[in-house]
Amino acid sequence: MNHFDQDRHSALQAKQEAQRIAFGPFVFQASKALRDLGVLRAIEAAGDDGLALEEIVERVGLSTYAVRVLAEAGLGIGSLVLKQDRFVLSKLGWYLLNDPMTQVNMDFTHDVNYKGLFHLQESLVEGRPAGLKEIAPGSRTVYEALATLPGHIRESWFRFDHYYSDNSFQSVLPLIFSEPVASILDVGANTGKWAIACANHAPDVRVTMCDLPGQLAQARVHVDARGFGDRVAEHPIDILRPELPLPGGHDVIWMSQFLDCFSEDEIVMVLEKAARVMTPRTRLYIMETYWDRQRFENAAFCLQQTSLYFTCIANGNSQMYHSSVLHRCIERAGLAVAEEVDGVGISHTVTKVVKRQQDAACAA
Amino acid sequence: MNHFDQDRHSALQAKQEAQRIAFGPFVFQASKALRDLGVLRAIEAAGDDGLALEEIVERVGLSTYAVRVLAEAGLGIGSLVLKQDRFVLSKLGWYLLNDPMTQVNMDFTHDVNYKGLFHLQESLVEGRPAGLKEIAPGSRTVYEALATLPGHIRESWFRFDHYYSDNSFQSVLPLIFSEPVASILDVGANTGKWAIACANHAPDVRVTMCDLPGQLAQARVHVDARGFGDRVAEHPIDILRPELPLPGGHDVIWMSQFLDCFSEDEIVMVLEKAARVMTPRTRLYIMETYWDRQRFENAAFCLQQTSLYFTCIANGNSQMYHSSVLHRCIERAGLAVAEEVDGVGISHTVTKVVKRQQDAACAA
């Protein structure tokens, strides 16, 4: 799907949009302040009548000056409307205040990315996440720093990560379990959410979680708390160390929002590790968000911008990929796409991958 | 003029715009990187044919990965268009690359404001420019730090400051000199641009520049370089010290983009200082940019966002005002508006202020 084959602005609109971009960091921080300092909430509560400036001041306990610069910024941003000297919440203001996706995106941008994005050009030129030092000095990737990030930053990271995958898990479980599944290898187990979802969905299935040791320790706590400890095993692994194999013997290998954390060459290496333990019957399911597979342009936009989080903060070399890049990696690893379903959950694609026919024949 | 009395979005548009805001810092930094790293320029040079990804890589000397994440971000932003796998510059891309106003705004945002805006909420709550420490640690206001800011930051500050006033000077000179003027008091002389413009415009006029000593030293260099040293005098003053008067005896007092640097109470104090040295014949001209006097909504938008620069970086208590606020200050200082002209230069209003009739009568 190409949402991007047309110039969408007139010359006048383009000039206006250029200024909105040039002042984008102002717009972002003003919008967040309007939300966090209670201004939008107070105005929402006043309904269609809205509030005069001094009425907002009384309700939020800031100075007249502070409320005035914020509320006036809100007019230009479009989150507030001014009717007979009274500020009224617009639809945009409502979304900034109440929409969970907007909240998750905004907090992720501010807490995890804002400071680091200042170093975007350095990251691009040097091929390393030069912005990471702003939240995790001394770390090479965000993944090794995750467990020790300051609480509010870690929370914004996980809320962003989970917001997009949680909705997809329920839709994808019937797909995975449409064939008999005795055991699943969960590569990139994260907090154990997928392992728990599987154990909950199928009373007999066994899951092996693969991840870095620190991450597995956290996942273990969640799994045990849900009472699935006896059916969920662990396999600690630094997947990027070429000499460390994946464990074999599973019917299904699962990689959800995992491969986007790696460069193309690394993805091929990970897929080759999977290929080495796959039989002709093994199904590898890859769940990813591809910007070219989005029904809505806005979803593609969010993914394209999120790529720069990988550039600047996460690892310096991965992204939210175009599906053709992943397909090329699958091919290079000696695997083949058997089936692909778009539109899973909010924005996911699930790809069922198997050994290539001739390779499978050789192994048999 | 109220550009802001209507909700401008449908629900769907509002949700989309909310995500553009939530990812605004990504959009800003990606746009700046696309500009600064030569990607937009290379694509522009290819005209309507555009460039394939690998062709951009060859031309700009970045990795395929770096060009890909940037160019794909550009698609969502709308600065690039994708036609048959070739990237083409859009009108928005053209403005981001070539429009001087966009360049000035973007550099001002990045160099002066970006890091500091992280501290916007702190600034609003505490009434001080909490973001200033990011570019001038230890300074209370940006004005006292101006002369010692790092070169590229100072340059972006002055380019922003001058971009908007330079065009206005030529339009406003005939207005000021429509009556006989022997001497002008230039309050807030900045780099001496106005003094030079006046000396250049009227061969006999004498100008007294008022500003902080450090600023006057720089202004003096510029004035002397233009050969106007004998007609331009100096009066060093920290205008915020209540006990320090302005010098008297001038036909015209000039304050250009000066009062927006102060809080309402401070503005009244400054205007009272002017009032004390004004006779019934003295004209005080105030040139300011008021967001409510803009013909174009986009100009109002830029001013409303710029207010947050004052909140967060400059001094913590001033802004780009609504004209009614300035009018109230003029009234409180015992002065009166005699005449007002909107639409001067890019976005200025010139207000001719005189002593109020009864006050003038008392003084006479």
Automatic annotation (TrEMBL), chains A, B:
<dbReference type="InterPro" id="IPR036388">
    <property type="entry name" value="WH-like_DNA-bd_sf"/>
</dbReference>
<keyword id="KW-0808">Transferase</keyword>
<keyword id="KW-0489">Methyltransferase</keyword>
<dbReference type="InterPro" id="IPR016461">
    <property type="entry name" value="COMT-like"/>
</dbReference>
<dbReference type="InterPro" id="IPR036390">
    <property type="entry name" value="WH_DNA-bd_sf"/>
</dbReference>
<dbReference type="Pfam" id="PF00891">
    <property type="entry name" value="Methyltransf_2"/>
</dbReference>
<feature type="domain" description="O-methyltransferase C-terminal">
    <location>
        <begin position="175"/>
        <end position="318"/>
    </location>
</feature>
<dbReference type="InterPro" id="IPR049480">
    <property type="entry name" value="BVU_1015-like_N"/>
</dbReference>
<feature type="domain" description="BVU-1015-like N-terminal dimerisation-like">
    <location>
        <begin position="17"/>
        <end position="87"/>
    </location>
</feature>
<dbReference type="GO" id="GO:0032259">
    <property type="term" value="P:methylation"/>
</dbReference>
<dbReference type="InterPro" id="IPR029063">
    <property type="entry name" value="SAM-dependent_MTases_sf"/>
</dbReference>
<dbReference type="GO" id="GO:0008171">
    <property type="term" value="F:O-methyltransferase activity"/>
</dbReference>
<keyword id="KW-0949">S-adenosyl-L-methionine</keyword>
<dbReference type="Pfam" id="PF21212">
    <property type="entry name" value="Dimerisation2-like_dom"/>
</dbReference>
<protein>
    <submittedName>
        <fullName>O-methyltransferase</fullName>
    </submittedName>
</protein>
<dbReference type="InterPro" id="IPR001077">
    <property type="entry name" value="COMT_C"/>
</dbReference>
